[in-house]
Write a structure and sequence with these properties.
Number of strands: 8
Keywords: Coiled coil
GO biological process, one term: chromosome segregation
CATH topology of the largest domain: Conserved hypothetical protein from pyrococcus furiosus pfu- 392566-001, ParB domain
Largest sheet: 5 strands, mixed
CATH architecture of the largest domain: Alpha-Beta Complex
Helix content: 40-55%
Distance between the termini: 137 Å
InterPro entries: Chromosome_partition/occlusion (IPR050336), ParB/Sulfiredoxin_sf (IPR036086), ParB_N (IPR003115), RepB_N (IPR037972)
Number of helices: 12
GO cellular component, one term: chromosome
Strand order of the largest sheet: 1-5-3-4-2
Structural class: alpha/beta
Protein name: ParB family chromosome partitioning protein
CATH class of the largest domain: Alpha Beta
Length: 370
């Protein structure tokens, strides 16, 4: 047997021999050969990592939920969270309302608006210990919901009303202030209504103040001094005639002050009003105001101006007044004459909702009265 002959006899050091690359698994860093884990150890490590990440995520979610829950409770205690409250669980006996004595002509419009587009401003309630709720703000809105429920029988739609519910315990004076401040935002609330509220507040056995004049200072802090003086002037008028009037809220400021002056002079307006209305039945608002103007002496025809002496250079009274003003829509013009006020502006006023237009005119005239 022949011996094979080696052609080359070269000594190569082992560290110089290139080693094949270690296999890599995507997502994992290679480990030194001496520390390489087996399949079972790798699976256990991956499971532990996933469990740890899941626990961290769950802890983060729980912390966020706890923070949201605490914030919800805080806002609810402040009465800043709206919820649906059944209308049959709401009482309105804690506060005496400044309700109109006559017919509320705007309630029908409010009902129609809620029927068509819903309630845009939730009412405000205070929860009670027996699971019921006391009305703080929103008497007309609640009345509208109850009328709709009565008319339609649709308890699913009108059986519960959106409300901001606050926790019990707020003082009675603060609750009255909330109701009053909301009503002061309504520009059409009259001096007679505010005077009635001051009288009712002073007569409420649960309140600490029994003087209506001081009640005005408490309830109408946000009103100006002049406005509070007008409210106080209406108080004796409401005391004397309030029970006989159906449209006290329509008495303008100037007429109310004139009537208050007659009362201050000792005139018995209550007896005079009864004498004027004897046998007439139910009066309309215009008829009632006409009688009040007569009692105030405002129904007398104005004396004709004395003729100017011959040769006098005095100018006659102007027949009208006009001026121009600028608006975003363009330049406008206002013409005022006897019995006429005309506004000319490049605007199609027929596109404005009639209720908004009427409210704007009333506010303008109220400013002119003041």
């Amino acid at each position: 047997m022949s011996k094979r002959r080696r052609m080359f006899d070269i000594d190569i050091p082992e560290e110089a021999v290139a080693q094949p690359p270690e296999p890599r698994i995507r997502g994992f860093d290679p480990m030194p050969p001496g520390l390489r884990r087996g399949p079972m150890a790798t699976a256990i490590a991956e499971t532990a990592d996933a469990t740890r990440q899941r626990a961290e995520l769950e802890a983060k979610i729980r912390a966020e939920n706890d923070a949201l829950a605490h914030e919800h409770v805080r806002l609810k205690r402040l009465g800043l969270v709206a919820e649906l409250v059944p209308v049959d669980r709401i009482d309105s006996s804690k506060l005496v309302r400044d309700r109109r004595l006559g017919e509320d002509e705007e309630l029908a419009e409010l009902i129609q608006s809620i029927r068509e587009i819903g309630l845009s401003n939730p009412i405000r309630l205070e929860s009670t210990e027996d699971g019921r709720f006391e009305l703080i703000q929103g008497y007309r809105r609640l009345t509208a919901y109850r009328r709709l429920l009565e008319e339609t029988g649709d308890a699913e739609r009108w059986g519960a009303i959106p409300a901001m519910v606050s926790a019990p315990g707020e003082g009675l004076e603060a609750l009255y202030r909330r109701m009053v401040d909301e009503n002061l935002v309504r520009k059409d609330i009259s001096f007679a209504e505010m005077a009635m509220l001051a009288l009712d507040y002073a007569a409420d056995p649960e309140t600490e103040e029994n003087d209506p004049d001081r009640a005005v200072a408490l309830l109408f802090k946000s009103a100006g001094y002049q406005k509070r003086s007008y409210i106080r002037a209406f108080i004796p008028l409401v005391r004397a005639l309030g029970s006989q009037l159906r449209f006290a809220e329509q008495i303008p400021r100037s007429l109310g002050l004139a009537l208050a002056k007659r009362l201050d002079q000792g005139e018995d307006l209550a007896a005079a009003f009864r004498a004027e209305t004897a046998g007439q039945g139910a009066l309309t608002a215009d008829q009632e105001l006409a009688i009040l103007r007569k009692l105030a002496g405002q129904d007398q025809p104005e004396a004709a101006p004395a003729p100017a002496p011959k040769g006098s250079t005095a100018k006659p009274a102007r027949a009208k007044t006009s001026f121009q003003f600028d608006r975003p829509e363009g330049r406008g013009k206002c013409v005022a004459a006897n019995g006429k006020l005309e506004i000319q502006l490049p605007v199609d006023f027929t596109t404005i909702d009639r209720r908004r237009l009427e409210q704007a005119v009333r506010q303008m005239l109220q400013v002119l009265d003041d």
